[in-house]
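To the team - flavin-adenine dinucleotide complex, inputs and output below.
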Amino acid sequence: MREIDTDYLVVGGGASAMAFTDALLAASDARVVLVDRRHRPGGHWLDAYPFVRLHQPSAVYGVSSRPLGHDRIDESGSNASFYERAGANEICDYFSKVLDEQFLPSSRVRFLGLHDYRGVDGDGHHVMSLLTGEQTTIRARKLVDATYIESEIPSRHRPSYSVAAGVRLVAPNQLVDLDAPPGGFTVIGAGKTAMDTCNWLLDAGVDPDRIQWIRPRDPWLFNRGSFQPRRLVGSYMQLQARWVEAAAQAEDGMDFARRLHAAGIFLRIDPQVEPEVYRGPIISTRELDALRTVERVVRQGRVRGVESRRIELEQGEVATQPDTLHVDCTAAGVRSATPRTIFAGDRIKARYGTITGATWSAATLGMIEATRDNDADKNRLTPPVAFTGNAADLLQFSYAAMSGLYARTAESDLATWSESCRLNPASGAVERAGEPEIAGAFTSLMTNFGPATRNLAARVGKAGATPGD
Ligand SMILES: Cc1cc2nc3c(=O)[nH]c(=O)nc-3n(C[C@H](O)[C@H](O)[C@H](O)COP(=O)(O)OP(=O)(O)OC[C@H]3O[C@@H](n4cnc5c(N)ncnc54)[C@H](O)[C@@H]3O)c2cc1C
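Output:
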C-alpha cells in the first residue's frame, strides 16, 4: 500500500477542482494531491455531447492563470457579436495543459487519475486505483470536496421513466451517430441540454415540425448579451445594476424574476408561459428565436413511460411512432442544492460562492483559503450561493451572493485580486469607469446596493447556511 503526505487532498479533477487548486497554488506554497475517478482532468466535459459549448464566454472560464481561447468576438452564427465559447474538446485539452504544463512541473501537485475516493479513518484518507485496485493512504491537512457541484450529464444518466423494448431512446451524444434518418424527433427535458439539442437539430436542417418537445416546466434564462466581459464589460455591469435595482424592490423571488425579465436580463422561451425554474443557463436571443419555431411543445408534466406508440405523462399522454427517435435530456446538469457552510475545519466543500461561473467561484474559494486563517472569516466572505432550481428562491440566492460580494469588496487584497482575475466577469470595469454604460451602472449600484441588501435582509436574511453535511 502506497502512502502520500500532502497539504490538500482535492477530490475531483473537474473545472472546480482545477480552478480552486490554481488559485491556491498562486497564493500559497501548498502541495496538492488531486484525485479523480476519470482518467484526466475536465470532469463532466470529458463525457459531454459533441455539440455542447460553454453557456458563457471562454474569456471568463477555466483557471485564473491561463487564458482559455483567444478572447475573440464571434462574427457569425447564433453567438455573433459575443465572445467565443469553447466546446468540450477545447475545454478538456485546456485542463490537460493546465495539469501537464503548469501543475505537474511545479512539483507541488500530484494527479491520481482513475482513482476513487473511499473515505477517511484514523490512518488517513483512502483512495483506490480503478485499474489495479491498489490502495493509497493520503495524509492531508485538509480535504477539499470538489465533487459537490458534480454535473449530472445525459451520457451517464439513466432516465427516471420506463422505456419499453424497441423504443428508440438516445442521449444527445448519439445524435451524431445515426445510420438512417428517423421519422421524427422527440426531445424530452426542459433544460439547457434540451435547448442545445433542439438548436443543434434546427441548425443541422431538421424541419421544426419534425421535432416534438416535451417541456414540463420552463426555466428563466440569462440573456447572453448581458453577460459579456472585457471590451463589452459594460453589458455585465448593466446586468449587475439591474439585478441590484430589482433586489431593492422585489417582494418575492417571482417578482424579482419578472423585474429582471422586464429589464431584458432574464428571458423565457414562451412569452405566454411564466417560468418557475431557475438554474442560471445563459442563451442568446438568436438561439431563443430558433427555439420558438418548435411549436409541437407538450406541457403535461414529466414523462412516466415511453412505449412504441404512446408517451405517458404525469397529466395525460401523447402519441409517438416506432420510427421516432426520442432524445433523453432529463439529466439535471446543475443539481439542486441547499445552502451549506463551505469552510469547516479540515473540510472544504467547494460549493458555489459567487453568483456567476463555477470556476470564478472555485478560484475565489482557493484564494480565500490561501489568504485567510479562520473559518468564520472565510465563511463570512463566501456565504454559499445555492441553486435550488426554484425561481421562488431567487431572493435567498441574491442575498447570499450580494452579502459575499459586499464582504469581499470591502477587503482591499481581495478587491484587488478580483479586479485582476481573468475569471471575474466584471474585471476591467473600474478602468473603463468613464464609459457611459459603465458609469451609469456604477451610479445605479451605489444608489441601490444599500436598499437592496436591506430589502433582502428583511425578507430572507434570517435563513442562512446550515453547517456541513
Ligand atoms: C452542458 C453544461 C454546460 C455548462 N456550462 C457552464 C458555463 O458555461 N459556465 C459555468 O460556469 N458552468 C457551466 N456548467 C456548470 C458546470 O457544472 C461547471 O462549469 C463545471 O464544469 C463543474 O465542474 P465540477 O468540477 O464542479 O464538476 P464535474 O465536472 O462534474 O467534476 C466532478 C469530478 O469529481 C469526480 N468524482 C466524483 N466523486 C468522486 C470520488 N468518490 N472519487 C474520485 N473522484 C470523484 C468525478 O469523476 C468528476 O470528474 C455547465 C454544465 C453543463 C452540464
